[in-house]
Amino acid sequence: IVETYERLIAEQGDRRLASPAPPMHPVVGGDGLPDQILPALSGGAGSGVEVLIGATAEEMNPFLMIDPKLVALPREPVLQLLSTLFPDVEATIAYEHYAARRRAARPAQIMADALTDRIVRLPAIAVAETRASNGQPAYVYQFNWRSAAAGACHAVDLPFLFGTFDEWAGTPVLESVESDSVKALARRYQRAVGAF
Q: Whose CB among 70, 118, 128, 167 lies 3.0–4.6 Å from 138's, allowing a Cys bridge?
């Protein structure tokens, strides 16, 4: 699987900027995912099961750290990506929307914020809204704690949830963070998820 994934990435090259989807992802139509998620939920799938759905505030930030070319990304490719991500919105309007949320936002950060919304936040909200429209509860959260190096990035919540700060020490996610300074938040987060 790893070799196949690496080959797909190599074959896609710079075209990967045009699509937010990873080269390998779940495919609808089979035992694991027999139907599209929202229509299945509308049809009653998962009824009777309470759902807790959430994400970190800046899920896509780590992907800026992986490829140094992305950090220096100019505005034009980001505008092209925005027109793909949000075809019903003028790309320059979407760009300005994301730029207004951050002081001196660089195009790469605007791209990461837009990808976070399109790939993670908006689908999570759609699941919660679809369940709510059918009278099924869904509980939504956003984890906002920010590391100095990676912000509120993908997986930054995991050491808080599992209490595994020592295993994450020295990683960009918890770079130069003393675990004692965050343990109180970890205990609150663990209690909240555990109570669910």
A: 128
Give per-residue pLDDT as tens, 106-149.
999 999 999 999 999 999 999 999 999 999 989 999 999 998 88
* Predicted structure pTM score: 0.80
Q: Which residues contact 28 (CB under 8 A, 6 or more apart)?
A: 34, 35, 36
Q: 158: which 2 tokens?
A: 């995991």
Please tell me what DSSP assigns to residue 147. Answer: B
Question: Phi and psi of 68, rounded to 5°?
Answer: -60, -25
**Tokens, residue 25:** 């992802």
SS3 letters across 98-136: HHHCCCCCCHHHHHHHHHHHHHHHHHHHHHHHHHHHCCC
Q: What angle do CA 14, 61, 67 make, to 5 degrees?
A: 35
Whether the Cβ atoms of residue 126 and residue 138 lie closer than 8 Å to each other: no
